[in-house]
């Protein structure tokens, strides 16, 4: 597991641009980000035909929330609570890629 090339973005806007240009195999998306939160960023990824096929895993510091069911319904491939176990993170990324 692992051995992936990782690209990083410092904001939702930067992440959207990077997703469009780099076409990553998967996206780890923090719910709480500067500029644009993860929910809005995910919606914009889904609205764009260039990025809507990319699997997204949300990272959240809030633990389990009522919104998790909504996220899954909207197409999120996984939700990981912070702090997270690196093996669990790698397993969810691996699952999103198949």
Automatic annotation (TrEMBL):
Entry protein name: Response regulatory domain-containing protein
PROSITE patterns per record: RESPONSE_REGULATORY (PS50110)
Pfam families to which the protein is assigned, alphabetical: Response_reg
Gene3D superfamilies xrefs: 3.40.50.2300
Residues modified to 4-aspartylphosphate: 30
Keywords tagged on the record: Phosphoprotein
SMART domains reported for this sequence: REC
Highest rank taxon of the organism: Bacteria
Record domain Response regulatory: where: 1-97
GO terms (BP aspect): phosphorelay signal transduction system
